[in-house]
Design goal:
Blueprint: E1 7-12, E2 17-22, H1 30-38, E3 47-50, H2 56-61, E4 69-73, H3 76-88, E5 94-98, E6 113-118, H4 135-141, H5 148-158, E7 159-169, H6 174-183, E8 186-195, E9 204-211, E10 219-220, E11 224-225, H7 235-242
Parallel strand pairs: 3-4, 3-6, 4-5, 6-7, 8-10, 8-11
Antiparallel strand pairs: 1-2, 7-9, 8-9
């Protein structure tokens, strides 16, 4: 497997997955690992991962299902990294589609997917926004080419009746996120807040929603703490990253 300048191969030991990374272009972070762990995938689930980046979430989920996993990524360089990682892991059930996630239903049929996952751009764009000078990172982190309303609409279009969508996002946008999901027919069913330390406010939230689900029954899961007081990872996070 050839690597481009500046690329490296990292391993998520708990999933036995190798992934091509680049600090100058894109590297997955803990939010991708947490999202992949949060998503409930059955043995025959048809899965689509939107805004796939270099393929982290899709790769981490691929061995949970014997059905197709489709990753959708706008940026050609990141889509290429994802394809090479798929080949590196010999994952025959995974394909990477390069293009705008808004167009996903052109190559994945509506109402055909069991699970949609997405680690979308977190930050809105305004006249006061300061974006990363690296275009790859700016697009991944800011709503320059898509927004959560689009992610929610496409997810709802793709999912079967009672299909499930899983997202990771920022808690400061939670009210908007839940309203957006509800507006497209995705009923929020689970929230889990991620705290950097036990004494810190949450800086991420995991959201599970069901297509055409009943509007009540939202569950708040126990908080997930990332770091111990000494700065090391908590046992749960260590297991996610490094295995037993």
């Amino acid at each position: 497997m050839s690597l481009l300048p500046g690329e490296r191969v990292d391993v998520l030991a708990s999933r036995h997955i190798k992934i091509i990374q680049s600090g100058a272009v894109f590297s997955f972070s803990l939010d991708a690992v947490l999202l992949a762990n949060f998503a409930q995938i059955k043995r025959h689930s048809r899965v689509v991962d939107l805004a796939a980046g270099n393929g982290a979430v899709g790769l981490f989920l691929a061995r949970k299902t014997d059905n197709r996993v489709t990753m959708v990524e706008l940026q050609p360089r990141l889509a290429d990294m994802a394809r090479r990682s798929v080949a590196l892991n010999a994952l025959a059930n995974v394909d990477v589609q390069e293009g705008d996630l808004a167009d996903t239903t052109k190559f994945v049929a509506k109402d055909s997917v069991d699970v949609v996952t997405c680690n979308p751009p977190y930050f809105k764009i305004s006249a006061r926004s300061i974006t990363n000078p690296n275009d790859h990172l700016a697009i991944a982190r800011h709503e320059l080419t898509t927004d959560f309303a689009t992610v929610a609409r496409v997810s709802a279009d793709l999912l079967k009746y009672q299909g499930k969508a899983y997202f990771v996002h920022r808690p400061d946008r939670l009210a908007e996120l839940l309203a957006t999901l509800t507006a497209v027919g995705l009923a929020p069913k689970q929230l889990q807040f991620i705290h950097p330390r036990e004494d810190r406010e949450a800086n991420m939230v995991l959201i599970a929603a069901i297509k055409a689900g009943r509007p009540d029954g939202l569950r708040i899961m126990p908080p997930l703490i990332v770091h111990e007081a000494d700065g090391g990872y908590t046992p749960f996070v260590r297991r996610l990253l490094h295995g037993d």
